[in-house]
Amino acid sequence: MSIGWGFIGASTIAKQWMVAAVNAQDDQCVVALMSRNKERGIAFAQEYDIARAYQDIDDLLADPEVDAVYISTTNELHHEQVLAAAAAGKHVLCEKPLALNIADASKMVAACEEAGVVMGTNHHLRNAATHQAIRAQIESGVIGDVVAMRIFHAVHLPENLQTWRINKPQAGGGVILDIVVHDADTARFILGEDPIDVMAYEQHAGMGESIEDGSMVMMRMPSGALVQSHESFVVPFAGTGLEVHGTKGSLFAKGVMTQQSVGDIELVTEQGREAVTVTPHNLYEHSLKKFGEAVQGEGSPAVTGEDGIKSLAIALAVSRSAVEGVRVKVEYPEF
Ligand code: NDP
Fold first, then answer.
1. How remote is the C-alpha of 114 from its chain's centroid?
2. Ligand 1, closest atom to CA 13?
3. Which tens digit of pLDDT belongs to each residue from 79-132?
4. In sequence order, what E strands does 222-271 have?
5. For residue 29, which of 288, 278, 255 has the smallest C-alpha distance?
6. Alpha-carbon torsion 220, 156, 185, 281, what sign?
7. Which of 157, 188, 213, 268 would bridge 208 by S-S if both were Cys, CB 3.0 to 4.6 A apart?
8. Tens of pLDDT along 126-176?
9. Is ligand 1 within 6 A of the CB of residue 73?
10. For residue 256, what is the DSSP state?
11. What's the gap in Å between 2 CA and the centre of ligand 1?
């Protein structure tokens, strides 16, 4: 069975990554696009060779060639759009953060489950060959018991994205919902456990007009491991990366918190330093391959709806901790 995709939102990520990633699959194709702005939708569809452009989500959902939707609108719209897609019986790949609160995110996941459709969250990083290799190294026991993880995700928000992310809290802007959610998912994926509680600071370093543009976070894991992360919109030259430190060794990964399939990993143990070799693959193509398999009944998406709820729960706890200046327990709903 081939999968016809309907894209909801004529977004930057759809343009830069997702149309090409869908069309790179043997059995998937973008067949329709919906934009609230008619001219933008038509222009997008023409540029990317998409057969139909709609302005109304109901029209896109009524299109019989649309089997699945990819939702990359601003964050406050994801909730109602996922509910509509599930009601129409379409599989759903939704951008992060799934919603602005846990109640809405939980309803989205429940609606997809009740409708019997596949739901995935488009956290890209755990699709990276580097992140998968780091997890495999830890699982092999080569670094012993994990004691700590550090995530470096301070970047400069490109000018073309300095819109709702820096001036529209009601659209889910701010560095916490934008980047901390990814770091939370990364920590969960690499360490294989969910933070118990968090402590965090947020920062207003000059780019965010009404919202935070920087954060530093501490997460405490059930194993006792501590995770530290730094996120920013205003730091052009820090470079990204992550480190995992264990009782017998450490993993240093440089340049791996990115959309590109790049980065290097070094393992340091008593035996010395060695490069961990990785065969890179496109992160978004990997996500869509896994999603397509899940639609065919084989396995789950790379990141499920439940994973999306958890990364959101962590980000919301981070936000509360930063605002209230207290340690905050992460509240995960029952699944
Ligand atoms: P954009 O600002 O590019 O687009 C967001 C929405 O705004 C679009 O869906 C579109 O909706 C509308 N829009 C597009 N262009 C314009 C314009 N010129 N003027 C006004 N409105 C416009 O957002 P991003 O692509 O950066 O992010 C979209 C979603 O994807 C977010 O949820 C974000 O968190 C997520 N994201 C995920 C990434 C990942 O790697 N997983 C990376 C980047 C973003 P419409 O066409 O209906 O008007």
1. 24
2. 25
3. 999 999 999 999 999 999 999 999 999 999 999 999 999 999 999 999 999 999
4. 226-232, 241-246, 249-254, 264-269
5. 288
6. negative
7. 213
8. 999 999 999 999 999 999 999 999 999 999 999 999 999 999 999 999 999
9. yes
10. -
11. 26
